[in-house]
User: Fold this.
Amino acid sequence: KGELRMQSLTFDDAGMYQCIAENMHGIIYANAELKIVASPPTFELNPMKKKILAAKGGRVIIECKPKAAPKPKFSWSKGTELLVNGSRIRIWDIGSLEIINVTKLDEGRYTCFAENNRGKANSTGVLEMTEATRITLAPLNVDVTVGENATMQCIASHDPTLDLTFIWSLNGFVIDFEKEHEHYERNVMV
Assistant:
């Protein structure tokens, strides 16, 4: 099928490859360069976030994306405690750390360790818990006669250290209040 597969590549496999296709009407060529990369893990281009926020009772994913070739093996620690997969904590193959049902006890310094046959590196961030955002007054179903006006309310509680934005949608499409200002009006209570 015109496919070339290579396994267990080494630096000697790097170079310009050429595919030649021919039949009784002629011959054509196509070229491609194969580069072999190998590097120890490094977080220089993509360090972990220094501050990670997680909502109380929610789920958080802390990303760990070092540059490395070959793909590194990952491990995590919280402070000096080495983390392992459990009912609430999961280390993904791609390096991310997932914590579900976040509690105050989950706050702290998290370090991702990446290691391959070229070396090792680590990066650290601090997880802080915030109060979960909750709808305290949800919009109610409304029956309105055609031509009349309607008002729908939505009130939420949230962590005071974070901003809150309300987004309204109609049948799954976000309402653009600037474009549809003659039909919709947003009242914000402070």
